[in-house]
């Protein structure tokens, strides 16, 4: 390979590693968002199931590793260090295999995951008290913003312990449909209704949540595909550059 081709390959590999570093930062940021967010549907699942927490830690770990590999790949490309390029290729291959395996497992386990999610939400509704708890207030926020009530239908709230054992006609305040007559609106807790039927939305939140997941799934899938493409290009360029380097020259490593 000519010197000009080596130079071009080297700087293209540096560019791809820079993109890989950025994508790794995005993945780590997404994992951190899942771990610390308390204003979305994820927060409801997170406090009720360890699965979401484990997934967030995995994303943070993969993102951190991707950033580290991008950094070492940049160093190996600029200074043409064969051992770093070989290590970089091997780690990229392992990460790509892990990503494909995880994607296949999630696809074939989607029905059990959906069942677990339904079980978590229905359990939260049954034990809802309206107190200052992250999951309950997050669920209230979801019902208000998505204009839905309950998980599959408003009837899920009839299983709530407080509503079932109360002598008053209670309903979830965040389910309140503004277009229907009723008492003053509250954001959280349980409200009393005087009419025969509670003034709530008729649609369950499962439809709105699935729509939200599908809309965001496109963004997540796009990021994953982008990362995979960068990984493949990085692997190809690293092998080309590694073969073109006749011998390792550790004198090129900067001295500090």
Automatic annotation (TrEMBL):
Gene3D superfamilies: Tetraspanin (1.10.1450.10). The chain crosses the membrane at residues 12-36, 56-79, 86-108, 219-242. InterPro entries: Tetraspanin/Peripherin (IPR018499), Tetraspanin_animals (IPR000301), Tetraspanin_CS (IPR018503), Tetraspanin_EC2_sf (IPR008952). Keywords: Membrane, Transmembrane, Transmembrane helix. Pfam families: Tetraspanin. GO terms for cellular component: plasma membrane. It is found in: Membrane. It is a multi-pass membrane protein. Belongs to the tetraspanin (TM4SF) family. This is Tetraspanin.
